[in-house]
Amino acid sequence: MAFETGKNGTVKIGAVAVALVTGWEFDKSAETDQFGSNESAGYKSALAGTGHGRGMIRGKLNTAAAMTVLEGTAATLLLYVNATEFYSVPAIIQNFKATVDIDIGKATTYEATFVTNGAWTEPTWV
Q1: pTM of the predicted model as reported, rounded to 2 decimal places
Q2: How confident is the model at residue 68 (pLDDT cuts 50, 70, 90)?
Q3: Residues whose CB falls within 8 Å of the CB of residue 119, separated by 6 or more in sequence, listed in order
Q4: Quick one: 54 exposed, middle or buried, by C-beta within 10 A (0-12, 13-18, 19+)?
Q5: Hey, is 80 helix, strand or coil?
Q6: What angle do CA 67, 22, 73 make, to 5 degrees?
Q7: N or C: which end of the chain has fewer CB within 10 A?
Q8: CA distances from 123 to 29, 61, 83 (A)
Q9: What secondary structure letter does DSSP report for 40?
């Protein structure tokens, strides 16, 4: 069994890397229909329905990062788990949030949330 560390993770839009990414999340789900019937022996059965997902990209803010992950932007995100394996996710950037720390002058950070916009492709190891 191989483990991943995340140290080689990144995010690209097409062939262009999003600048200064410090982390990302991808939460994927399937709608389910659970039901009991005269054939389920007192237990619920389930059927998988449509898939959907959402996620977040975090990083240090600079002009290049801000321009690629603006709210309302449609893009295919390549979410790299390591140097070669990635999820290919058609998405809409839903929200962009910048955080400025005036008190101690930390690097300005951003978070961009996204929702899936169609079918995504899993890494080859899945």
Answers
A1: 0.86
A2: confident
A3: 51, 90
A4: middle
A5: strand
A6: 30
A7: N
A8: 16, 28, 12
A9: S
